[in-house]
Please model this.
Amino acid sequence: MLAWYEQNGAEVPWRPGPGRPGDPYAALVAAVCAQQTPMSRALPLYRRWMEALPTLAAAAASSRAEVLALWGDGGYPRRAVALREAAQAAVAGGGELPRDEKALLALPGVGPFTAAIVRCFGYGEQVAAVDVNVMRVLGRSVWGELEPVRSVPRAEVERLAARMLPPGDAARWNPALMDLGAATCRSRPLCGKCPLERLCRARRRIARGEEAPPPRRQPRYEGSDRQWRGHILRILRAAAGAGGTGSVAEESLMGGLAESPGERARAAGLLAALVREGLAWRSGGRCGLGEGPDVAAGEEDAEQEPPGVLPSVAADRAEGSAMAEVYSDDRFTVEAHADLGPFANVSYIIRPADGGPATVIDVPEGFEEVLAALGGREFGALIVTHYHRDHWDGFDVFRAVSSAPVYAGAEEIEIDESRGVRRLADGTALEVGGVRIEVMHTPGHTPGSISLRAGGVVFTGDTLFPGGPGASRSAEALQQEIRSINERLYTLPGETLVLPGHGAGTTIAASREEYAGFASREHAADLHGNVLWASS
Model:
């Protein structure tokens, strides 16, 4: 393998070599650029980023608008935001990227593969890095499976990869496996060019004419929300310029995108989603990239935070449904489908980067939109955060097309057992499509409410929203909900993205800060219902 790599390995600037010492920051940038992106697109993106922001400190000092403009058409623009936020967290925590795996995983947008790349290429640590290419090479050669990403548990491949590391050669061994997977061990393998051909357990099957299952059909891009979002961001980038400070009149933006009233409503909804994600701003009839112009405290545009309402729920209902990619790391991407049903619910899709089966969080009325987005892709699981009907009303639509297992909290006794629900105990770690989902029992809104943590995101159902907790039926229930929030959710890293069952998301750090004001005041003994941290 190492001899093959010396002759055939890709020449990329972030891998250490003769005269090129390891650089943790370069390794981080490279790994984020390569998340769910082929090398042909990741390499120019990496070079563009490093030319503009050559150091960790430069990335930390940049603006969100600047990095979004720099990212261009690189895809999954939240990666640019997460990369900047990771740099800021590292600079604030001591001025350099940590070497410790746990500390790296706490950074925004960093999953196990990215952490391993930083440790291996940046710090020379002897650790294995497993991506989809490594999954194919080891899964075929050792397990004999034609499409290992579907049939071999990722954790088993990771354990094997760690055992196989040649002492002191991780910085060559890891890229050797990656490059072999990309160059020869493809979906349609070129076995005659592979150095492992005589050792590979899948070789006989391939020689007999067996083929790996075709890739799952992805949702059509032409005419999709993804394409429309790309159009909006492209216009905003052109207006922003290199420094990311320019803006465009919202009327001009809409006029350039939409002709019919229906298209205009769709574009407005997608712009609103981009604003909620922090990828765009709008104020005073203008809009642009990133955070937007500075405004004095208390003078924010009223449309951004309707007073007395949990943030953006009212706006969501008015502006129409929108799909948004709200989180991405090297393991998976999360899509939010908002404004479903009469209560403006959000249903989330967790899409594994390696093409494995998707997980859906909550199944409200209007679930047909989620099915359309999945485009026939296989379900791995449906998880329901609590028993209230607005989170369940699309169940029959789901079950009509899928026999995937359905899960709810172990304490959620009100859910109809005839639905065949499997129970998730507090502390359970469910693995679906290679994505690890940790279950947290967070009672209060209902006795069995659960929150679900995956990577740098936590799905909170109706337990926690931007601005306050979910509605409570009694003072005792509110106090239980506050205990769940403080003892379970607020112990997560501050940069963890909070994705609730209705409306927009927030972060743990922002929510903790909001709660501090609430906790500093006295409250009526019977306080409950729709409580807001700022005004209750």
